Amino acid sequence: MPKEVIVPELQERGKSSDFTDLYLKSVQTYKRLFKNWQAGSKVEVAMIRLIMIPLMDKALEEPENILMLHHYCNKEEYVYHHAISIGLIGGYIAFKMKCNRADVYQAAIGGCLADCGMAKLPPILLNKRESLNADDYKEIHAHPIFSYKMIKDSSIIKDSVKVAVLEHHGRLDGTGYPKRLKTKPMNLLIFKNHCCCRCISRHDDFRKGIWKETVTV
Over the stretch 5-27, which tens digit does the pLDDT of each residue have? Predict the structure, then answer.
């Protein structure tokens, strides 16, 4: 969807006073952006910022809604719900860690974009529900690198958040992916914790196939 169509949509979406309505509209906006990335468009981080900041503010006003995120999800749109939910959970963890509001927003934006590299994977792989083979895993393990490359030139995101996006499947002992590096604790903490929260809350149906690999920590 062209930018000139999405921007008015974002402005209208921002007028919503209901968290659920705002969340669902945010998911649909992210979905349209994701499809643009699949078609080769660049990631406009400013657009993600417009999505996440009002939604994060609303979530902090009514934090009980964060515990309900998994109820809104469905199989067909899991990719898009996952991105928005990870952003919200990451921002909330940053808030509870007493980070300032700017860093809360950074965590929310970074969390939302952590899996943007999934847009570079074959669509058939994103929709695959049966067990993955070795070649599938190899492709999936590349998505943090794609995500990093898609956002690395943005002046909106801090360098530390970009590193966290690259390393969000890393582990302290170096057994994660894509580079099997020993990740610094502070780069890993928020993103790894919010992935854990999302993993715990997701529907049982998503414990199969691709999402078992990409969400498990």
Answer: 555 555 555 455 699 999 999 99
What are 76-79's contacts with CB under 8 Å, separation 24+?
77/27, 77/31, 78/206, 78/211, 79/34, 79/115, 79/118, 79/126
What three-state secondary structure class fits 139? helix
How many C-beta neighbours within 10 Å does residue 80 have? 21
On whether the CB atoms of residues 107 and 190 are closer than 8 A, the answer is yes
Looking at the chain, the whole-number percentage of residues with pLDDT higher than 70 is: 75
HEC profile of 60-79:
HHCHHHHHHHHHHCCHHHHH
CB 151 within 8 A of CB 157: yes
Residues for the chain: how many in total?
Answer: 217
Q: What is the DSSP letter of 119?
A: G
